[in-house]
Every structure is written in structure tokens, then in C-alpha cells.
């Protein structure tokens, strides 16, 4: 599978998984702006944004839920090994 296809699939799966989180620090609408994979697919940088959210708090909550989110990815995306998720603010894309 091409990296672009994989990244769009990860974006979709993570968007759904994040919307299902029951953490008060995670707002109802969190947008996964982009997912970038390292060349060895070992690390996926997930760029998120949320209107009116405390971004550092949101990133902390997502990092806390990393294990759960990685399991969702492992179950839904066919990959040899599941990449480690690293959450960043969408403002860091540039």
C-alpha cells in the first residue's frame, strides 16, 4: 500500500477512534488534520486541531489514550507492525 493511502486510512481510523474517547479533556469535535509516517512506518505523527480547545491538554489526553488508539489502528489497518502514535498540534504542520 502506498504511503499516501496508508496515511489517509490512518486519518480516518484515528478520527473515528478519537471521537469515541470519553475523556473530559477531549472536545466533541477533534479534527485529525494530517498523519505523516516515517519512512520505516515506525512512527506516525498525528496533527490534530479542535476549535476552542486547550491544545496542550488535548495532546496530553491523546498521549494518555495512545495505547487504546494504537489498538484501534492495529485492528483496522493492515500493516506489518503498528506505528507508534505521536500527537502534535496542527499548528506545527508548517
From TrEMBL:
Keywords: Cytoplasm, Ribosome biogenesis
TM segment ranges: none
InterPro entries xrefs: KH_dom-like_a/b (IPR015946), RbfA (IPR000238), RbfA_dom_sf (IPR023799)
Location relative to the cell: Cytoplasm
Transmembrane helix as UniProt keyword: no
Task of the protein: One of several proteins that assist in the late maturation steps of the functional core of the 30S ribosomal subunit. Associates with free 30S ribosomal subunits (but not with 30S subunits that are part of 70S ribosomes or polysomes). Required for efficient processing of 16S rRNA. May interact with the 5'-terminal helix region of 16S rRNA.
Subunit-structure text: Monomer. Binds 30S ribosomal subunits, but not 50S ribosomal subunits or 70S ribosomes.
Family matches, as PANTHER family: RIBOSOME-BINDING FACTOR A, CHLOROPLASTIC-RELATED (PTHR33515)
Family: Belongs to the RbfA family.
Protein name, entry field: Ribosome-binding factor A
Native organism: Deinococcus aerophilus
Phylogenetic lineage: Bacteria, Thermotogati, Deinococcota, Deinococci, Deinococcales
